[in-house]
Amino acid sequence: MDASDFERISFAGLDHSATSRSSPAPALLMCEPAHFGVTYSINPWMDPASWARDDRVHAAAARREWTAFHRVLTRLGAAIELIPAVPGLPDLVFTANAALVLDRTALLARFRHPERQAEESHVAAAFRVLQARGIVDDVVALPDGVVLEGAGDCVWDATRQLFWMGYGPRSSLAARAAATEIFGVDVVALELADPRFYHMDTALSALPGGEVMYVPGAFTAAGRAAIHERVTPAQRLKIGDDDASRLAANTVAIGNTLVMSACSRRLRATLRERGYRVATTSLASFQRSGGSAFCLTLRLDRRSARREMRQIAAA
Ligand code: ARG
Questions:
Q1: Ligand 1: distance of its center to the CA of 283 in Å?
Q2: Residues enclosing ligand 1, CB less than 6 A?
Q3: Which one of 40, 41, 51, 91 would you pick to mutate in the ligand 1 pocket, going by the greatest count of ligand atoms within 8 A of its CB?
Q4: How far apart are CA 84 and CA 262, in angstroms?
Q5: What is d(CA 146, CA 307) in angstroms, rounded to the nearest whole number?
Q6: pLDDT tens, N- to C-terminus, the chain (315 residues)
Q7: SS3 call for 257
Q8: How far is the CA of 292 from the centre of ligand 1 (A)?
Q9: Whose CA is nearest to atom 1 of ligand 1?
Q10: What CATH fold (topology level) applies to the domain 3-314?
């Protein structure tokens, strides 16, 4: 993020509901980009040759962008946990892919590509530490043969109390049954149709006010129909190509602030009308790897209403 970008984010009059006493600070898992780079290609955004031509410059830019992003999230009230970076694992920074977490249970990811499978043991170790520290209760594995790339393909919709699950390029359809069984909530599977949006979080975001912001062309006709069935026309925010290609759907919501890498005037106005603030902080270096804001974080504190009711009843 350059200085001008940072200036554009105004912290005056921020909504502090995220940090109010009734709702504890949102907990996020992140990983410093100490070993980030584009050294292989497993999605259409990744061009290792172009990265290599200027790798030091790109790596330095990535570190600056990540630090600014981390600062924005912290100032919005997020409590951030870090998983140690590992040499040779450039994509470990995308912690959304590490696991799926709900009701203090972490379902560890299994990756499609060997390049990322090497992350799995490091993620498992990091979650054992989070478990020992009391941040999660249970750490569970997927059944054999099932691939699910964490929250990157499974987005929690608190309004509808369900997971939207993308499948095809990375996660397998069989992950739907596994996630349903483990978390006891509905999981709506949406087939992904555009190789640019290979993880569902690059094309869909469930906003805290109940809107679903998405890239229609990223889904098959059946997937779009499944969205229409559950989201009223007034709650559908369709993202145009300009925003889609800058991964604006890949946003992190903290309270009513949406943090993203870039946002057109039009989308910003639409979101403002709905009561959101948009904070942009460039993550262009991570887009060279096919990732953006949401991909660089993993929410650890999501609770289903069912679980909350049980807790109230027990108290
Ligand atoms: N280079 C990474 C990959 O292709 C990017 C992952 C982005 N993460 C995400 N949740 N969309 O796997």
A1: 13
A2: 42-43, 46, 91, 94, 96-97, 116, 152, 199, 201-202, 289-291, 295
A3: 91
A4: 28
A5: 26
A6: 333 343 344 443 344 444 444 567 999 999 999 999 999 999 999 999 999 999 999 999 999 999 999 999 999 999 999 999 999 999 999 999 999 999 999 999 999 999 999 999 999 999 999 999 999 999 999 999 999 999 999 999 999 999 999 999 999 999 999 999 999 999 999 999 999 999 999 999 999 999 999 999 999 999 999 999 999 999 999 999 999 999 999 999 999 999 999 999 999 999 999 999 999 999 999 999 999 999 999 999 999 998 888 878 887
A7: strand
A8: 8
A9: 289
A10: L-arginine/glycine Amidinotransferase; Chain A (3.75.10)
Ligand 1, atom 7, lies closest to the CA of 291
Buried b (16+ CB within 10 A) or exposed e, 273-282: ebebbbbbbb
Identify residue 68 by its one-letter amino acid code. Answer: A
Q: Among 169, 105, 116, 177, which residue's Cα sits nearest to residue 143?
A: 177
Cα(93) to centroid(ligand 1), Å: 9
Q: Say how many Å lie between the CA of residue 290 and the centre of ligand 1.
A: 6
